[in-house]
């Protein structure tokens, strides 16, 4: 008798859980980004996103690399990393030190932008560095996969634009990038952490306000304190409704878990785009189901860093909104094959 009663209670509990899940599945998904989402693809093909400007074609995070990507696709989205200098200028750099990518050394926060320009520091290198991003061997000038060295004059510039220097890839400020490409979408990742990272974030936001670029520039960071500050600014209405940001892996993981549990209705972050690898910790993230669920939340999905043509085609097939690559010409070839 007790056994039968226990089975009935268990069945009742399971029925309640099933009902609750059914109800949750029927509840409309929250629109995490409340405006029309500029990070969604424009048509059938994903946005072509140049990782660092396409850092296997030209030195990454240089204005020249982005002009090269622009020559491939006038609608290219630029992906860049930034750090702030001692004199308060936000510059493009994947690292927070200068050792790997230039002909000098030191932390970016210890250098003045005026000195970087005055000394014509060259950002056209791919030097060996240690775990602390400090120079660990002989400097090496940037070269493509086939060993061809590149210089600013090798870029196919648009009419009216000339190389800033014949030999040197000069430091590039975020403001230069924003103003050089006034119509293009840009993803800006804050690389510094702590107070310096917050300072960099605030200056980046000031530039977006100055140039009215909130509707085409998305901010991102893998540092929790930066991501939390992005959310705080939005919640406190310190930024306009068009303000766009992307989470690090922590925020993305929260969505992944809630989706797997059928509880993504509880995902409330006001971001606009997931920027993800195709797989993380053994979990495949590049699936039609993931993209479809994200779209129900008015969230775009971009994948990085995709350099193989077959993977590019797979992401097109699942409906990805953007593909980030080191080889803009290669991705453009794949897109052209669909026309």
Give a written overview of the molecule.
The structure is a single chain. With 339 residues, the chain is α/β, with parallel strands linked by helices. Helix content is 35%, strand content 13%. The protein has ten helices and eleven strands.
Provide the CATH architecture.
Alpha-Beta Barrel
Distance between the termini: 70 Å
Question: What's the structural domain tally?
Answer: 1
Q: What is the CATH first-level class name?
A: Alpha Beta
The CATH superfamily is known as Phosphatidylinositol (PI) phosphodiesterase
Number of helices: 10
Reconstruct the topology from this structure:
Elements: H1 2-26, E1 47-51, H2 63-72, E2 77-84, E3 90-92, H3 113-118, H4 174-180, E4 186-190, H5 194-210, E5 217-220, H6 224-235, E6 244-246, H7 249-260, E7 273-276, E8 279-280, E9 283-284, H8 288-296, E10 300-303, H9 309-318, E11 322-325, H10 328-336
Parallel strand pairs: 1-2, 1-11, 2-4, 4-5, 5-6, 7-10, 10-11
Antiparallel strand pairs: 2-3, 8-9
What's this, in brief?
This protein has about 350 residues and is of the alpha/beta class.
């Amino acid at each position: 008798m007790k056994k039968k009663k226990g089975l009935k209670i268990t069945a009742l509990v399971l029925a309640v859980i099933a009902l609750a899940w059914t109800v949750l599945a029927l509840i409309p998904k929250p629109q995490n980004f409340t405006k029309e989402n500029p990070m969604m693809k424009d048509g059938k093909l994903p946005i072509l996103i140049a990782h660092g400007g396409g850092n296997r074609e030209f030195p990454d995070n240089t204005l020249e690399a982005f002009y090269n990507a622009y020559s491939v696709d006038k609608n290219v989205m630029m992906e860049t990393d930034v750090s702030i200098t001692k004199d308060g200028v936000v510059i493009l750099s994947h690292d927070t030190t200068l050792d790997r990518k230039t002909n000098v050394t030191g932390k970016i926060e210890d250098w003045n932008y005026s000195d970087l320009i005055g000394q014509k520091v060259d950002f056209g290198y791919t030097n060996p560095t240690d775990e602390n991003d400090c120079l660990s061997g002989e400097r090496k000038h940037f070269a493509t996969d086939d060993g061809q060295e590149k210089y600013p004059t090798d870029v196919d510039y648009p009419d009216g634009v000339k190389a800033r220097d014949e030999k040197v890839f000069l430091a590039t400020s975020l403001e230069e990038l924003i103003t050089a490409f006034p119509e293009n979408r840009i993803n800006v990742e804050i690389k510094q952490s702590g107070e310096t990272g917050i300072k960099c974030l605030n200056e980046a936001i000031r530039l977006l306000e100055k140039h009215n670029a909130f509707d085409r520039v998305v901010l991102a960071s893998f540092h929790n304190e930066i991501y939390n500050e992005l959310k705080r600014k939005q919640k406190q209405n310190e930024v306009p409704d068009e303000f766009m940001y992307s989470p690090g892996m922590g925020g993305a993981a929260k969505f992944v878990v809630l989706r797997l549990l059928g509880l993504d209705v509880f995902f409330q972050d006001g971001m606009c785009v997931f920027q993800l690898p195709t797989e993380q910790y053994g979990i495949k993230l590049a699936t039609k189901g993931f993209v479809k669920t994200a779209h129900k939340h008015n969230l775009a999905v971009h994948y990085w860093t995709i350099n193989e043509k077959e993977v590019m085609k797979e992401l097109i097939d699942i409906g990805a909104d953007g593909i980030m690559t080191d080889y803009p010409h290669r991705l453009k070839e794949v897109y052209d094959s669909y026309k």
